[in-house]
Amino acid sequence: MCRHLAYLGPSVPIQRLVVDPPLGLYRQSWAPQNQKYGTVNVDGFGVGWYADADPVPARYRRAGPIWADAGFADLARVVRTGALLAAVRSATDGCAAGEAAAAPFVAERWLFSHNGALPGWPRQLGDLAATLPPAELLALEARTDSALVWALVLHRLREGAALGEALASTVREVAEHGDARLNLLLTDGVSIAATTWGDTLCYRSDPGRGVLVASEPSDDEPGWIHLPDRSLLVATADGVTAQTID
């Protein structure tokens, strides 16, 4: 499993979102509070963010733990953004290691992260992989279950699906192939979509401060709302909607 977060709101330093919160993503790499599977998240990390007037996100990823990367500490201190997706990774058995396996995954204007696992990876998921065109399978960024889920989501986005529908329909399809855990997080820099399917997810939306969607609260302040399992969330800087995934 992993921990991840997404943010939309006023431009702030990355450090304020990822490093500074007392229970935030940085700390969740070694001491998550609500993680159901795994104990630490030190098998890689990544941050994707959007700059003003540029719809294509930048990305910084590494194979090791977030707290061991001095370069990230400098970047997080000086780079500001109003839209971000970040994740720390706990690798799943049978999945590739390395920087390419760390979220967020990126294509065009989208950033994506998967917190979960696909049982039977990779041997028992041939039917699922076969639903994708060969060219899209060959373009997988890493040999991981998360990269396959991302390819399924991306196929729907390129077919014109909205963020929320791309996630929900992917979850429904993958869930037919076994007891998968599918907490997904997706942003285009304007909206955030997320699913709960087997692990925790919460959000906080504050007027003037934007919205933060995360695997678990990054502090003890009031206002965090925990979503029930099998939910779909869609958020903008102005508000949040949630519904059950049927």
Structural commentary:
The protein has 246 residues and is of the alpha+beta class. The chain has a single domain (2-244), classed as Aminohydrolase, N-terminal nucleophile (Ntn) domain (Glutamine Phosphoribosylpyrophosphate, subunit 1, domain 1, 4-Layer Sandwich). The protein has helices at residues 14-18, 25-28, 70-78, 126-129, 134-138, 145-158, 163-175, and strands at 2-13, 45-49, 58-62, 80-89, 105-107, 110-117, 181-187, 192-196, 202-206, 210-214, 225-226, 231-236, 239-244. It starts with a strand and ends with a strand.
Alpha-carbon distance between the termini?
Answer: 24 Å
- Biggest sheet details: 7 strands, antiparallel
Give me the count of strands: 13
| pLDDT < 50 stretches | none
**What oligomeric assembly is this protein in?**
single chain
In CATH, the homologous superfamily goes by the name Aminohydrolase, N-terminal nucleophile (Ntn) domain
Rg measurement, Å = 16 Å
Give keywords.
246 residues, alpha+beta, Glutamine Phosphoribosylpyrophosphate, subunit 1, domain 1, seven-stranded antiparallel sheet, 7 helices, globular, EC 3.5.1.118
Structure described in brief:
22% of the residues lie in helices and 32% in strands.
Topology (SSEs and partners):
Blueprint: E1 2-13, H1 14-18, H2 25-28, E2 45-49, E3 58-62, H3 70-78, E4 80-89, E5 105-107, E6 110-117, H4 126-129, H5 134-138, H6 145-158, H7 163-175, E7 181-187, E8 192-196, E9 202-206, E10 210-214, E11 225-226, E12 231-236, E13 239-244
Helix pairs in contact: 6-7
